[in-house]
């Protein structure tokens, strides 16, 4: 009887067991501080809710080495399994993404995806260009050796292909999902998340020296979304958005200085400037590029004041365009300012400053249309003779007037000078 009850209990036990929880994160685009913060908070939240594992959907061209290493530390020190899944079809795990895949407890890819080209991105322009002795510099060699040792340790940690990992760093090799599985670079190929979870069910994963059996059947998937701060940082650290913020700050502050008291341009420019500075504090940028943008705008302004026959204006556009292109390095960030956007804003900036400066100069040279000075050059009509001169009608008011010429009632005159409340007038030749 006892054996029968025990058997019945074991049979019904799965019905009362609570389903496992899987946290799903999505990292798309360049790896940076936002990605690092998102992964850290996602793992922390997953552990807080006793999740069985964290599934990261990955699609990245690479990114910052510092952020990548922070993410790898979070993965390797996690007490729950971290599964990296390069998906959907057509996605990639290039550069920094390759390191993340090697660091994960389970590496998976969808068909039609690829990984590799893990040479330190900051060295690509110089490492491919040999010096006179046909050798890379000592500094480059040190950095490459460090990267090779790093990815080798990750490969050994998770029993993955070491030789291909070294080739990915030293020779910038890439590999398809099918070949990656055949060479032992990844663990699983799956068409979608459902298939991946089926293949993960019952798989043994080693975490902190202990073997954990994954139970993904009927698991509850929690889609972990970034909070508003992460979304905000993700937007402003996009090179195109950061670039637009810089330009908006320059436009706004400049326009406020040209029109003191306008308030709105100054407020928008100041806010945009502060946000742009915060974005530049988070993501690396080229100081030469920023200086070229400022220099280009300065040349455009000077062109309006100085007759440079267009040389300064053309030079300003060229400096502005080159500065915009150099501002963010695509190899470092995985993305840069769009070339069509640079061309468009170079032309718009030139037109903007020419228009604004011409309006400014015309307003400075315009004739006064209000106040006493406006009386000079005005026309009047003699309405009466007086003992001291004449009475004239000017701007709907009767004024005392004097003239060196003899005038008659009804004659039209022009105001040449204003002495106190007396107008000096002269006859208009008809």
Please outline the major beta sheet.
6 strands, parallel
Total count of helical runs of at least 4 residues: 16
CATH architectural category of the largest domain: Alpha-Beta Complex
The tally of beta strands, per DSSP, is 16
What does this structure look like?
- This protein is an alpha/beta fold and about 425 residues long.
- It folds into three domains: about 20-225, 2-enoyl-CoA Hydratase, Chain A, domain 1 (Alpha-Beta Complex); about 235-365, no CATH class; about 370-425, Beta Barrel (OB fold (Dihydrolipoamide Acetyltransferase, E2P)), CATH 2.40.50.140.
- It is built from 16 helices and 16 strands.
- A six-stranded parallel sheet has the order 8-5-3-2-1-11. A five-stranded mixed β-barrel has the order 12-13-14-16-15.
- The longest helix has 27 residues, at about 340-365.
- Residues about 10-15 and about 125-135 have low confidence and may be disordered.
How are the elements arranged and paired?
Elements (H helix, E strand, L loop, with lengths): L1 H15 L4 E8 L4 H16 L4 E7 L5 H12 L5 E5 L5 E3 L1 H8 L2 E4 L4 E3 L7 H4 L10 H20 L4 H9 L3 E3 H6 L5 E2 L3 H8 L3 E4 L2 E4 L6 E4 L4 H9 L2 H20 L5 H19 L4 H19 L5 H16 L3 H4 L5 H27 L13 E7 L4 E5 L2 E7 L8 E8 L2 E6 L3
Parallel strand pairs: 1-2, 1-11, 2-3, 3-5, 4-6, 5-8, 14-16
Antiparallel strand pairs: 6-7, 9-10, 12-13, 12-15, 13-14, 15-16
Helix pairs in contact: 2-3, 2-10, 3-4, 6-7, 11-12, 13-14, 13-16, 14-16
Characteristics of this structure?
16 strands, 49% helix, OB fold (Dihydrolipoamide Acetyltransferase, E2P), 2-enoyl-CoA Hydratase, Chain A, domain 1, 5-stranded mixed β-barrel
